[in-house]
Structure formats: structure tokens, C-alpha cells
Amino acid sequence: MYESHQYLRQFSIKPSVQRSAVMNFLLKNRIHPTIDEIYLALSPSMPTLSKTTVYNTLDLFVERGAVRALAIDERNARYDVDVSAHAHFMCRSCGTVHDIFGLKTQMFQIPETTKLNIDAVEISYFGKCEKCSGN
Amino acid sequence: MYESHQYLRQFSIKPSVQRSAVMNFLLKNRIHPTIDEIYLALSPSMPTLSKTTVYNTLDLFVERGAVRALAIDERNARYDVDVSAHAHFMCRSCGTVHDIFGLKTQMFQIPETTKLNIDAVEISYFGKCEKCSGN
DNA sequence: CTTTGTGCAAATTCTTTGCACCAAA
DNA sequence: TTTGGTGCAAAGAATTTGCACAAAG
To answer: Distances from the Cα of A75 to the Cαs of A32, A35, A46, B23, B70, in angstroms?
Structure first.
């Protein structure tokens, strides 16, 4: 938990009990969780935690560049503490999101366009994960 | 309008007045519209059209492979009649979605993973479009 | 004190569902 | 007729907003 506290400072985020708990969860559970998953995971040990705080916290983390909001899941926003260049895969059946590392770095380069001011790239794959491939 | 009618048959979609109108709109307006944009564009000339029908119609189009649902916009589903391999850009300021053609075909290849059964790739860029770059 | 963060409840927005009516074969 | 399509109204899910209270400096 202390690590999360320190980790937040790197991004000029004032650590509160709630913020540290959320960051700690993200660092320890690299599952690209939704707001609800974070809330459900933390609320047993923090009964007064509100979902609004989870929303506020993640908005702040994204704004400060501490986490990345993923556009892969139409239903809910998902968040990734790993802000390095990598891709994602979402299973159409169970909805889990996996990391895809090891793609060529060129794939994350920004294409030359005169008209657009691109600041981020997202590469997403869809299909069935190993567990769900039988279905 | 007659073209849209014929176009739908290619995908084994029975053309109705509503379906042809939606497909016609998609073919003539390559703006990756949301359900609401389609509904608002068509309802003046089809006053009895319901948004449910627009939802049903696009679900069917996606199911039959006639259009692609984009995950680029967290807020609303957006649809693209161009199902060929190309990327998209979304402006963070005005929300418009642009096509990005001309990327290397390798970028749309499916990475080799033993565990995942990938059937689709989506490459998305984010930033500010030309109009909004001043803001 | 004063500022910033938290949390409840209500409001909004997007999408889905249930069901009755309409249309085409 | 019978099947499939449409459209209304209500329900549901995710997110945002307004505001009062709590916490930290």
C-alpha cells in the first residue's frame, strides 16, 4: 500500500486513502478492470467507498497520465496502469481483456498526416480466448 | 435508394423501407455515424421511424457483415459501411471520426498467439483534428 | 479557517426488452 | 394466415452532476 502512495506522487497526485487503494488494486491486478470491478473489489474492506469516488479517481489518474483508459470495451470503460506501448485483446464471449506484448514498435508509430494532430494509438484485437474457444 | 436495396441483398438482408433508408444513409454519408445521428437524419423524411428500428437494423447489418461497429468512441456505438482494412482517428475535441487509409497491410495482420482465437483488428488514433487544433 | 476530497441521491444518456400492431409472402 | 418487421413505452445499465459533509493542511 505504501508503494501505491509513493507511486501516485510520481504523477503529482495527492494520495488519499481511496486513491492509494485504487492505485494499489490496479498495480496488483493487471486485469484492465471496469469501474464496477474496482468498486466491488475494494468496497468490502472500505465500506464507505462510493462509486463516484472511483469515477473521480480514475478521471484524475487518466488526466495525470498515471493510467490509460481503454476504448476496447463498448459496454464499460476499462483502465490499464501499464501505459507503455502494447495492444489488447478482448474476448467476445467472456469479456476479459488480455495484454498483447511483443508487437513491432512501428505499429505504434503515428502515421504522417498533415491534417491531424495525433497523440495516442490504440490497437485492439477481438475474438475468443482459450477458455471460450470451445463455445 | 434502389442501390441500397440491391446492396442489402448481397448480405442476405431482406430490404425493407427502413433498412434501405439506413443503408442508403451509410453509403452516402461516410461519417461513422452514431445511432442517434442516423435517426435524426432520417426521421424528418420518415416521421414514424423509431430508434428501436435503427438499433435493430444496425445489429442485423453487423451480424451479416454489412457494416462494422467501431469501438473507438466510448460514448456511443459508431458504424462504418467500409469493412475493408483501414484505421480510424477520433478528435478528442469535436468527436468526429475520420478514416485513415494507406497503412501497411501488415498492421492489420493477426499476431501469432497460441492461446487466442483472433478474428478482428481495430486500429484507432486519438488527438485533435485540423479544425480543432487551434483550441 | 480554507481548500480539497468524498459520498449520497438524483439526473442524464445510451441501449435493451416486452409486447402489440403492421406488412409482406 | 403465418412469419417477420416495426414502433411505442418501459426498463436497465453506465456515467455524470449537484450538493452537503469530512479531512487535511
So the answer is: 13, 11, 26, 25, 12
CATH number for the domain that contains residue B124: 3.30.1490
Q: Which nucleotide lies closest to B54 by the C1' atom and the CA atom?
A: D6
CA max distance for chain B? 52
A77 touches strand C (CB under 7 A): no
Does the C-beta of B48 come within 7 A of strand C?
Answer: no
For residue B60, give the nucleotide whose C1' atom is nearest its CA.
Answer: D5
Q: Mind listing the pLDDT tens digit for each residue in A7-30?
A: 999 999 999 999 999 999 999 999
Q: Same structural domain for residues A128 and A64? A: no
Residue nearest to nucleotide D15 (CA to C1'): A55
Q: What is the pLDDT of residues A57-73, one digit of tens each?
A: 999 999 999 999 999 99
Question: What is the model's pTM?
Answer: 0.94
Contacts of residue A16, defined as CB under 8 A and 6 or more positions apart, other chains included, come to none
Instruction: Work out if A16's Cβ lies within 7 angstroms of strand C.
Output: yes
| Domain region containing B60 | 2-80
